[in-house]
Specification:
Number of strands: 0
Number of domains: 1
CATH superfamily: TorD-like
Helix content: 55-70%
Order of helices and strands: HHHHHHHHHHH
CATH class: Mainly Alpha
CATH topology: TorD-like
CATH architecture: Orthogonal Bundle
Amino acid sequence: MFDASPRQIAADRAALYHWFALAFFAPPTLEQVQDMQQGKAAHLLQALAANPGADIGIQAMREQLATGSAAHVAGQLGAAHARLFAGAGGFEAASPYRSVYSSERGLLCQQATAEMERVLRQHRLRLETSVCEPSDHLSIQLEVMAQLALRLTEAADKGSTRLRQMEDEQADFLSGQLLAWLPDFCLRVLDLDAQGYYAGLASVLLCVVQQDLDFLSGSRAELA
């Protein structure tokens, strides 16, 4: 029987945001490609394809995953990740930092970075010492959402009366941080990723984030 309790929904949301965070932070390993081709991650892609607006992006990802062996696909995606997100593409890159899209000169470590650092302090979150990236990196913002959703599961377990407030905080983060630049980032990836995997991944992410904001806003309305 399907568990649609607030706790389970929050846990599922946390897992999904964590998956997206890892997917943009580094290219998939050989094992992760195999998992997307025929393992549990393949079932996740199938489930995501059922979301309105996500099917085309998932189809693009699947087409790239089906171009050869797992080793071949992993090599292709590694090269694409380096070109798009790690600077190997030079000017033909889709920078994964909010500052690049929100600052006047498109530079790193601008006001958006300072805002994100304030958010981390507000929620008592700290980057791992191994993460040497400005805090407005897409994957860091996605992992923040994962952690906020996990906190909601813990609060639900304890019968906390702060669930609505915590959902408000997540909705504010989505609208004020992620969705403030994610559409522009996705357009950039769509324009540059000829292979299609990361273009599909970006479009699915945007769809999921927009739907999650709608969910959180609807949840708040029901509790009002």
